[in-house]
Specification:
The protein is α/β, with parallel strands linked by helices. It has four helices and seven strands. A seven-stranded mixed β-sheet has the order 2-1-3-4-5-6-7, sandwiched between helices.
Length: 150
């Protein structure tokens, strides 16, 4: 009898426990060149981190970036939109999640260029030091995170 009561208690608690589950991540829309392999690797990094990602292939990433509103100075090989923010380049998924929790007033995050060791830019155990920039609405940016960590 006690075993049955215990099982019924657990079953009753499941819906309540799901109310405390982490909220679902917003979808990510990526604009990238169809022939870019590192962009595909970055998309896979986001997917492995729990994001649902859709990709739009464009021949002119500079035009797509400008249309979306990311300043060209922070340009890289792909642009994305998530939760009202833009992402430029090989931004680590952990920083995207932190951005979505912090909700700063900003355009979004950027990793200009294509630094070795950034997600999608892995080359063995090589890692360049790079900053993930928080791009503000005035076009200026400041460091949001520095990699590699540790």
């Amino acid at each position: 009898m006690k075993r049955r009561q215990l099982l019924l208690s657990w079953a009753a608690a499941l819906p309540a426990a799901s109310a405390f589950a982490a909220p679902a991540l917003p979808p990510v829309q990526v604009w990238k060149n169809p022939s870019c392999g590192c962009c595909g690797a970055w998309v896979k990094h986001l997917q492995q981190s729990g994001f649902v990602v859709s990709v739009t292939e464009v021949d002119d990433i500079d035009a797509a970036r400008a249309r979306l509103g990311m300043p060209a100075v922070y340009g890289s090989c792909h642009t994305a939109r998530v939760g009202g923010y833009l992402l430029e380049g090989h931004v680590p998924a952990a920083e995207v999640k932190r951005l979505l929790v912090m909700k700063p007033v900003a355009i979004g995050l950027a990793v200009p260029g294509m630094p070795v060791g950034a997600p999608g830019m892995e080359v063995g155990d090589q890692h360049e030091v790079y900053d993930v920039l928080l791009v503000e609405h005035n076009g200026r940016a400041r460091s949001f995170a520095r990699y590699p960590k540790g």
